[in-house]
Amino acid sequence: MNDLDFLRTPEGRALLDEVRDTDPAQELAVATRLRRTHPAPLVSAALGQARLRQRAVAKFGAADAGRMFFTPNGVEQSTRASVAAYRAERLHGLGVRSVADLCCGIGGDAIALARAGIRVLAVDRDPLTCEAARANADALGLADLIEVREADVTEVGTAPYDAVFVDPARRGGRGRIFDPEAYSPPLSWAVAAARTASRAAALKVAPGIPHEAVPADAEAEWISDGGDVKEAVLWFGAGAAPGAVRATLLPGPRTLPGTGLPDPEARTPGRYLYEPDGAVVRAHLVAEVAAQVGGGLLDATIAYVTADELRPTPYATAYEITDRMPFNVKKLKALLRERGVGTLTVKKRGSAVEPEELRKKVRPQGPNAATVFLTRVAGAPTMLLGHPAR
C-alpha cells in the first residue's frame, strides 16, 4: 500500500486528525509515541501529510487543506484557490459546462471548476498524483463532477468537452523551466490542443513568459493575488480578444486592459511615487497606470511612476516622497536617525543592493516608520524616502 492508501483507511484518518497540529519541532517525540500503537509507515505517512497540509493552507485555506491529500510537488505546483476560482468563473461565464483539465496535478483547478458547476475530466500521467486528485474530489464532495484519468495528455481526446485547460509542468530536475518549449508538454502542443476546443481554452503559463512567445490568436492575462504575481493565462476562443493583454488583480477581480499606449516619458520626480502591481508590470501596462495618475517614469528603464498629484488607482500603490538623494548609505543612516525611523521598508528596482544588507548597515532605531526606494533617476543611483500616501 502507498501512503494515500494508508491514510484513507479509518485508522489513517484518525491518525491524521491526531497529528494535524503537530509542531515540526515535536515530530520526533510524537512519532516515537505513536509508533508504540501504530505501524511505523503509517505514522511517518501521517506526519508527512500533516506537514504538507500545513504548507497548503496558504493556497487552499485551512478548511480545504485540512481535508485534502497532497504530494510535495502537488503543494508546490498547485494553483492558489482564489486564482483557480477566478478562472473557473470566467469559463462558466462563457457558457462552458465541461472541461478537459490536462496535467491536472492533485486537482486544485478541477476542484474550482467543479465548484463553478462545470463537469471535469482531470488527466495526469502520474499514478500517485491521480490518486491524490481522486481522493481530493471525494474528500470535498465533488466526485460526481470530477472524473480522474491516468493517461498521457497528448493521447486524450477532448472533442466531447466545451473547453480545454492545460497546465504544463514548468519544473524539472534542475528547478524552474523558463523556455516554454521545454514545458511538459511543450507550449506549442498546448496551443495546438487549445485551438481544437469547441468553445474556449485556457493555458496556464509562467508569468515570466516572453510577450513574443504569446500566439497572435491568444489573449494574454497576468494575474496577481494580494500583490503577488501568480501566473499568466493564454485564452483562446469565446470571450478572448486575440492579441489583447490584461492585468487582473485579486481579490476583486479588478482588470486593467491594455490600450496600446506608448511607453511614458521619464520626468523629474514629483511629490508621489506609484509602484505598479506586479501583474501590471508583467503585462507591460505601466503606461496605462501612468495615464491614470497623470504621471511619467522616474527612469526610462524602471517601472516606477512619478506624479505631482495623488490619484488613487487599484493598479498601483502610492507613496508620498519626502526626500530624494544620491545613493549614500551614510547620509541615509543620518537621515533615518534624525527622523527617528525604526521600521524601515526597503524597496528596489534597478539597484543591486539587497534590502537586508542595507538594513544592517543603517540600523534603524526609533518609533517612526518609513519606506526607502533604491532606484535610478535619469540613470543615476538614487534613494527616495517616503511613506504610503493617505
Labels describing this entry:
27% strand, 390 residues, 18 strands, 9-stranded mixed β-sheet, 13 helices, 33% helix, 7-stranded mixed β-sheet, alpha/beta
Describe this entry's structure for a reader:
With 390 residues, the protein is an alpha/beta fold. It contains 13 helices and 18 strands. It has a 9-stranded mixed sheet, sandwiched between helices. Helix 7 links the parallel strand 1 and strand 2. The longest helix is centred in the first third of the chain and has 26 residues, at 40-65. The N and C termini lie far apart (59 Å).
Terminal CA distance reads 59 Å
Specify the overall morphology. Answer: globular
Evaluate the radius of gyration: 24 Å
Strand content: 25-35%
Poorly predicted runs of 5 or more residues: none
Tell me the major beta sheet. 9 strands, mixed
Structural class: alpha/beta
> Which percent range fits the helix content?
25-40%
Mean pLDDT across residues: 94
> What is the total tally of β strands?
18
Which strand order spans the largest sheet, edge to edge or round the barrel?
3-2-1-4-7-9-8-10-11
Count of helical regions: 13
